[in-house]
Amino acid sequence: MVLKQGSSEVKIYETPVTVSGKAYSQYALCYWLGGKRVRQRFSDLDKAKAEAQAAVIKLANADGEALRLLPSDRAVYVQALELLRPLAKPLNLAVDEYVSAANRLPPGVSLAEVVSDYLRRHPSTMVRRTVKEVAAELIADQKARGSSGVHLRDLESRLGRFAETFQAPIATLTAPQIRDYLRKLTAVDGKPVKNRTRRNVQRILSTFFNFARKQKFVTRELCDEIAEIEAPKVENTEIGIFKPEQLRAILNEAADDILPAICIAAFCGLRTAELQRLDWENVRLAERVLIVGADQAKTSSRRVVSIPENCANWLAPLVRESGSVSPSPTDRALNHRIARTAARVGISWVKNGLRHSFCSYLLAATHDPAKVATQAGHSASMLHKNYKALVTQAQGEAWFAIHPDFGALNAFTLPGRISM
Question: Strand, helix or coil at 236?
């Protein structure tokens, strides 16, 4: 039912209710007053009509007051109505929305500037994707390009956590949000992560947003702003290594199935992930070399690594024609297995300790950074930064003089303490 007075109107709706299985009549009175919606309920229709009649008269009188304007005011009012006509929005609501938005803006910033900025960041040609969807597309793209399993697992872990934090369209994210996310990163135990971890996550997020830009999911401007986020300074921490006598104790304690992996890590310097992907067919003991394929190396670059005399002696009784050198299903499981072996002889495990020991001792024994860099698969400058002067030449020679008890009888034993 609609009651009118001039251009004003009030509507009455029948809204029956049921209580304890019994239906009752109810009437709702609705109208707008001063930019706000008024709604009243009545159980009696006559009372609803009486209230509606009073309300419509009140509205008509208010309209009459509004129309008693100066000629200049009336022209502005009419012009405002014409401007709003295409939007089908009442003048009072439009003014209310404008004032609400303007009150939230910093001084000197106009609503038009904000709209322009939004349209620049969200052009009509932009494809809408959530953070989770873009992460899945990037991982699929990297898999199709032949990225290593280690790299893919790293992407899945770090981007999965990022997508869990930002469950929203990727185009709505801002550089300050990314900066805040990196600053507040924590480990599994809830403690803040180290800056090296923050740098690694920042590198992955940079790849992530550049991929999104190429797919037209975000603007170039957003990528540029994220690229300008200052990378945290990496802490200068001294690397951990094992002493020669500690390695001998670990080797003597190790089971036959895991002994080759420990030897190759300690005397050839392979990373855990590279060990996990190494096949026996690439361990050419007769030629005293092992091949790390491009699909196995962290740097995606193929390299040939020399097998020193003592390592050949340890491997000779255990070498196989083919199959995985690692007895564990994952690189993490391999690390845990070696750590447990060390623990049985009272030695605390050092993360990446075997590889760090290899680089440190070989550099001290040979004084040849280029050779060590080639063996290890990273730059000579990195060697100088992390490994130079950590150990003496005598200690380096002692590391590569660790032979098994049966070494003297082994056919691969060659003269010299370090035959690289």
Answer: coil
Note every long-range contact of 79-87, with CB atoms under 8 Å and residues 24 or more positions apart, other chains counting: none
Q: SS3 helix, strand, coil % of the chain, rounded to 5?
A: 55, 10, 35
C-alpha triplet 46, 52, 54: angle, nearest 5°: 105
Tell me which residues of the chain have a pLDDT lower than 70: 34-35, 62-70, 121-125, 235-238, 294-301, 379-389, 406-420
Residues 6+ positions from 124 with CB-CB distance below 8 Å: none
Handedness of CA 258, 335, 280, 412 (dihedral sign): negative
Report residue 116 as tokens.
Answer: 């322009």
pLDDT tens per residue, range 205-257: 999 999 999 998 998 889 999 999 998 887 655 678 999 999 999 999 999 99
**CA–CA distance, 152 with 158 (Å, rounded to integer):** 10
Domains by residue range for the chain, with CATH = 2-68 (no CATH), 131-227 (1.10.150), 244-409 (1.10.443.10)
What is the C-alpha to C-alpha distance for residues 396 and 335, in angstroms, rounded to an integer?
24
pLDDT of residue 407: 42
Contact 273, 123 (CB under 8 A): no
Distance CA 325, CA 319 (A): 9
pLDDT at site 388 = 57
Task: Tell me what pLDDT residue 114 has.
Answer: 87
Residues 57-89: tens digit of each pLDDT: 777 776 545 545 667 777 888 888 888 888 888
Q: Token pair of 166, please?
A: 């930002």
pTM, rounded to two decimals: 0.54
CB burial of 80-95 (b: ≥16 within 10 Å; e: otherwise) equals: eeeeeeeeeeeeeebe
Q: Give the CB-side neighbour count of residue 301, counting CA atoms within 13 A.
A: 10
Sequence-ordered list of residues with C-beta below 8 angstroms from that of 236, at least 6 positions apart, any chain = none
pLDDT digits (tens, 9 = 90+) for 396-418: 999 999 999 754 334 333 333 33
Q: How does DSSP classify residue 308?
A: -
Contact 365, 393 (CB under 8 A): yes
Burial of 235 (0-12, 13-18, 19+ CB in 10 A): exposed
Long-range contacts of 402-408, Cβ-Cβ distance < 8 Å, separation of 24 or more? 402/244, 402/247, 402/248, 402/251, 402/310, 403/309, 403/310, 403/313, 403/314, 404/251, 404/313, 404/314, 406/313, 406/317, 407/310, 407/313, 407/314
